[in-house]
Amino acid sequence: MPFRRFLLGATFCCFYLLFYFTNKYVLSVLKFTYPTLFQGWQTLVGGLLLAVSGKLGWVEVHSISRSAALSWLPGSVLFVGNIYAGSRALSRLPIPIFFTLYNASEVVACFIQKLIQREATSLMKLLSVMLLLAAAVCLPLHDPQFDPSGYFWAVIHFLCVGGYKVFKRSKSSLLSDLEQQYINYVFSVLLLAFSAHPTGDLFGALEFPFLHSYKFHSGCCASGVLGFLVLLATVRLKSSLPVEHCAAWVFLAKVLAAVLSLFVFDIVVNIPTVCCLLLSCLGEALFVYSKRSAAER
After folding, report:
1. What's the 3-state SS for 143-180?
2. What is the extent of the structural domain holding 218?
3. Angle at which helices 95-102 and 243-264 cross, to 10°
4. Torsion angle, alpha carbons of 233, 234, 240, 243, to 10
5. Is 266 exposed, middle or buried (CB count within 10 Å of its CB: 0-12, 13-18, 19+)?
6. 203 or 276: whose pLDDT is higher?
7. Residue 3 has pLDDT above 80, yes or no
8. What CA–CA distance (Å, rounded) separates 11 from 251?
9. Which of 240, 293, 264, 278 is CA-nearest to residue 17?
10. What is the number of structural domains in the chain?
11. For residue range 50-88, what is the model confidence (pLDDT) as tens digits?
């Protein structure tokens, strides 16, 4: 049993790393900066694979009532904001910088949860949130590759992620994770498809120099499939392991992706930037530990 759990966690880490590396390659190396089309393709592939998997009985996706789908609509709006802004940010920011800012979503989620429920926060969780916030605030002040547009979209990204986390917790008993994601996929495809023309992405993509390159098509196909595999691995991880163990594997996947990206993609760092990255890692590690402490009580 421990080996099977380790294998499941290692598989999740591999899919997670490959997913972000593929996205970064298409968005930054090939410079395909048309998020409505790129994210629309990802969600279309994910939706089709999820629907086929459900029909074949590989995963459980029950019929979704109209009332349940409508109740999940705010979550889908946040999901679209998450993937759109995340795509914009990742195209301009190195992966370690992106993850450091992404971790600030826990600060947003904690703040919203505190306003809604007014529940007591443990000292460990409060300390971890403060470290994550400090790292995210100090990072743009010392980043030698500071990109205002990239940081702007990163802020939109982690605000949407934080709001989505809180919304998901409040609606988790109504729909399964796969059913929630299926609604997200359908809504995203429709919204992004209608947005491709007004945003100018459609005409811009027609002039994209790598449009007929096998590297571009391979990267886009791999990105869509890997996104679906990350979803399945995440759902399997959550159903097989305690919440604190799942958080630990996600933390490990981020660290591996951030460290290995230094050897794959171009990134310029200085000592203050490295300190901010390490501070974020420490904050997330303490956040994972706070979940373990909460589970033991």
Report:
1. CCCCCHHHHHHHHHHHHHHHHHHHHHHHHCCCCCHHHH
2. 2-296
3. 150
4. 160
5. exposed
6. 276
7. no
8. 14
9. 264
10. 1
11. 999 988 888 888 778 888 888 899 999 999 999 999 999
Kindly report whether the global pTM for this prediction surpasses the value 0.85: yes
The region, left, alpha or beta by phi > 0 then psi within -120 to 50, assigned to residue 200 is: left
C-alpha distances (whole Å) from 215 to each of 22, 95, 220, 279 are 11, 21, 9, 36
Mean pLDDT of 178-201: 81
d(CA 173, CA 76): 16
Contact (Cβ atoms closer than 8 angstroms) between residue 211 and residue 30: no
